């Protein structure tokens, strides 16, 4: 449409105000209070109106604009022969519906953004069928390997190559390794604390039980003075640092498949033990010996578990390297698949000879066989991502943005449930672009989108913690029920 409007029908404020509020909220990540403070010097508006304009005007206008962008998909099909789709869902909150996103990879256009009450094959077919109904070919789909999604994609996009996220493959393959690593970490931490817990908790204190304090009555600043025994002072400082290092290492947290805290804790504590042994060669000290002996006992108890886990972690690292195309000559999907299965065959005898490794290997093997039909398409389709991280990062960015503008995790989750599909839509590149696109929206399309938002938000009308509001809502339901005709049931 070449014509422009000044304001949506029935709205007091023009598109310039609506766009400015949306831009400050989504791009500049300002709270409604901050936006109101910025606007009130230029026009008469309340904070409640700022909130209403964003939720009831800006978000539906953005959704209408995304539909206008759909024409760009014709160019994608003409240039590449088909669409590449990426799909992912955000983990639901409690028993609520799950938010799903379908984006075209090359153009970035969001084709579907909404909630699903079920995640079985039939539900996914219903969710994806409107895309197939457009008549444009879909040549590739990237997703995690959700059980109901795999057969649904095969049914709706029968000619598409369905690529599975390699990060999820590695995560699933590493699951028992991660669990065993966590168990070893806990056991090792308990062993260290049992051997020298009281010793490593020693700290330089202001008074008994009090460390550094600030505020109106802060800790006194104690000037450094020349000690009568500088050697003892330096020894105490070194021992303090060693105790702090050990104490810190007991707090390590892992993130499988590659960041395994148990292995890292064992290796870093071993470094400290070796350091203690070298220090003892130079100058003996009772506390050095106590720290060294305590670490040695704790590490010896964990040595067998560490050796086994380190071997399994090496397998995962090697598999990840096989899949990584960086610094390798171009390879076909068949070549990468053959290399991976050859490696699994080469490590199988090692697992057979070590019972502790057997379960790790069989999980890797079973996961590989399960993911193999969709694990290698990216090598035959240049540009197709190996992971679904881009789609997942969209959810992470949304969480971070909403947390910044709300300051509350609980409120962030509620907003995602009530408006997440609209919040996920991409923004124009600039404030001027946003204004030029939003004031071209058809009034009818805009009203329909507002109704769509109202229908979705209506699901949450009784979601309140206010006792007064809850009583009023239930009373109105009772009145409506009482007014039903006697034979209505």
Task: Explain this structure.
The longest helix is centred in the middle third of the chain and has 38 residues, at 286-323. With 489 residues, the protein is an alpha/beta fold. The protein has a five-stranded mixed beta sheet, with helices on both faces. It is globular. A hairpin with a 5-residue loop joins strand 2 and strand 3. It has a domain at 166-202 and 233-372. The mean pLDDT is 92. The protein has helices at residues 15-26, 32-39, 47-68, 72-80, 121-132, 149-156, 166-173, 175-200, 230-249, 261-282, 286-323, 333-353, 355-375, 389-406, 409-423, 431-438, 443-457, 467-482, and strands at 83-90, 98-104, 110-116, 138-143, 161-164.
- Measure the end-to-end span: 50 Å
Residue runs with pLDDT of under 50 for 5 or more positions: none
Question: Rounded to an integer, what's the Rg over CA atoms?
Answer: 30 Å
For the sheet with most strands, the description reads: 5 strands, mixed
Strand neighbour order, sheet with most strands? 3-2-1-4-5
Q: Structural class, from helix and strand content?
A: alpha/beta
Secondary structure tally: strands = 5
Give the CA-based shape: globular
Q: What is the mean predicted local confidence, pLDDT?
A: 92
Q: What percentage of the residues does DSSP assign to strands (E)?
A: 5-15%
Number of helices: 18
> Share of helix among residues?
55-70%
Order of helices and strands: HHHHEEEHEHEHHHHHHHHHHHH
């Amino acid at each position: 449409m070449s014509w422009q409007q000044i304001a949506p029908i029935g709205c007091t404020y023009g598109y310039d105000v609506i766009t400015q509020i949306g831009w400050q909220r989504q791009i500049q990540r300002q709270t409604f209070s901050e936006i109101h403070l910025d606007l009130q010097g230029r026009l008469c508006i309340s904070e409640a109106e700022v909130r209403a304009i964003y939720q009831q005007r800006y978000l539906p206008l953005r959704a209408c604009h995304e539909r206008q962008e759909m024409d760009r998909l014709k160019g994608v099909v003409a240039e590449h022969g088909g669409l590449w789709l990426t799909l992912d869902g955000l983990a639901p909150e409690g028993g609520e519906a799950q938010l799903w996103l379908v984006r075209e990879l090359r153009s970035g256009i969001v084709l579907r953004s909404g909630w699903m009450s079920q995640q079985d094959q039939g539900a996914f077919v219903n969710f994806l069928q409107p895309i197939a109904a457009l008549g444009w070919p879909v040549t590739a789909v990237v997703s995690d390997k959700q059980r109901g999604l795999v057969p649904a994609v095969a049914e709706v996009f029968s000619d598409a190559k369905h690529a599975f996220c390699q990060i999820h493959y590695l995560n699933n393959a590493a699951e028992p390794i991660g669990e065993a690593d966590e168990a070893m970490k806990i056991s090792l931490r308990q062993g260290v604390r049992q051997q020298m817990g009281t010793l490593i908790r020693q700290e330089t204190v202001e008074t008994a039980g009090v460390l550094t304090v600030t505020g109106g009555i802060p800790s006194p600043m104690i000037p450094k003075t020349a000690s009568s025994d500088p050697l003892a002072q330096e020894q105490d400082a070194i021992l303090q640092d060693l105790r702090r290092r050990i104490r810190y290492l007991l707090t390590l947290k892992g993130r499988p498949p590659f960041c395994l805290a148990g292995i890292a804790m064992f290796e870093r504590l071993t470094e400290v033990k070796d350091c203690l042994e070298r220090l003892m060669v130079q100058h003996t000290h009772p506390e050095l010996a106590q720290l060294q002996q305590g670490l040695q006992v704790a590490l010896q108890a964990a040595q067998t578990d560490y050796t086994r886990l380190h071997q399994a972690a090496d397998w995962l690292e090697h598999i990840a390297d096989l899949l990584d195309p960086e610094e390798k000559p171009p390879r076909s999907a068949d070549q990468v698949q053959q290399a991976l299965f050859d490696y699994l065959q080469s490590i199988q005898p090692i697992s057979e000879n070590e019972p502790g490794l057997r379960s790790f290997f069989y999980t890797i093997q079973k996961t590989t066989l399960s993911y193999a039909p969709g694990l290698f398409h990216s090598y035959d389709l240049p540009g197709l991502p190996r992971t679904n991280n881009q789609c997942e990062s969209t959810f992470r960015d949304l969480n971070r943005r909403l947390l910044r503008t709300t300051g509350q995790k609980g409120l962030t989750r509620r907003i995602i449930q009530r408006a997440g599909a609209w919040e996920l839509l991409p923004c124009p590149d600039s404030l001027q672009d946003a204004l030029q696109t939003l004031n071209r929206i058809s009034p009818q399309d805009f009203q329909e989108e507002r109704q769509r938002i109202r229908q979705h938000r209506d699901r949450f009308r009784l979601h309140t913690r206010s006792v007064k509001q809850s009583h009023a809502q239930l009373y109105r339901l009772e009145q409506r029920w009482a007014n039903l005709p006697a034979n209505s049931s």
